[in-house]
Amino acid sequence: MIGTGLVEMDLDRELDTLARRHRAAGGVGLQVLNFVGGQAENLLERLPDKVKSRLEDATTRALELALRAAAQSRGVVPDQKGWLNTLLATAMGAAGGAGGLPGALAELPVTTTVLLRAIQGVAAEYGFDPDDSDVQKECLLVFGSAGPLAGDDGADMAFLSARVTLTGTTVHGLIARIAPRLATVMGQKLATQTIPIIGAAAGAATNYAYTSYYQEMAHVHFGLKRLSDRTGRPREALVADLRGALARLT
């Protein structure tokens, strides 16, 4: 009985930690919105129609390129600390923003690669092998979260309970499912980088938010996966527990 109680206490403690990470992930996006002085739903209107119409294809290509580049780089460049990933992405955002929309578009696949490597690094931190095909799909699934500029302040947790049943699901098929949502997220990012005068600063701030957000959400995602593996509890049940932990934070 005492042992069971201790296990429950450990589980609650880990869920509370993940809840705090989830809450922190959404907060950075609000800071960026305050910085650029706009609302997320209005940011996409700043993009030219030609760019908006091609955004999903560009995001799909960026994801495919990022997956290849991230896999190839793992044998050469070790996983970095979270703060270093954030610093690198922030610098790239500043450079992309300084170049206006063409610079921001050129930077998109590079930033996506850095984000994916950061997510893979978190997976490894929780004891999962990023070279494993199933874990690669789990890493891609993190991109299915709401995004740092989402109006729900990061409350969407549907991606956490999505089952990556990898029977018959190819990486390409998973990218095709994720790309439409990520295209909206990346469109918001591009729009902030095209703001006149403050493009470089907005690009840096946005990339800071995106890297911080996806790393935190990766911690939540793989933290729940590890808890599920250790306890045998279904992920859906743990997501419900996480909702309760989030409610306790309010």
Q: Could you describe the 3D structure shown?
A:
The protein has 10 helices and no strands. Helix content is 77%, strand content 0%. The protein has 250 residues and is mainly alpha-helical. It has one domain. Helix 3 packs across helix 8.
Biggest pleated-sheet summary:
none
Can you write the helix and strand succession as a string? HHHHHHHHHH
Cα distance, first to last residue? 31 Å
Please state the average pLDDT score.
80
Shape: globular
Q: Total domains, how many?
A: 1
Q: Percent range for helical residues?
A: over 70%
How much of the sequence is in beta strands? under 5%
**Radius of gyration based on Cα positions:** 18 Å
Task: Give the low-pLDDT segments.
Answer: 1-6
Strand elements, count: 0
Number of helices: 10
What would you call the structural class? mainly alpha
List keywords for this structure.
single chain; 250 residues; mainly alpha; 10 helices
List the helices and strands and how they pair.
Layout: H1 2-36, H2 40-43, H3 49-73, H4 82-98, H5 100-125, H6 133-142, H7 158-161, H8 171-193, H9 199-231, H10 235-249
Helix pairs in contact: 1-9, 1-10, 3-5, 3-8, 4-5, 4-9, 5-6, 5-8, 5-9, 6-8, 8-9
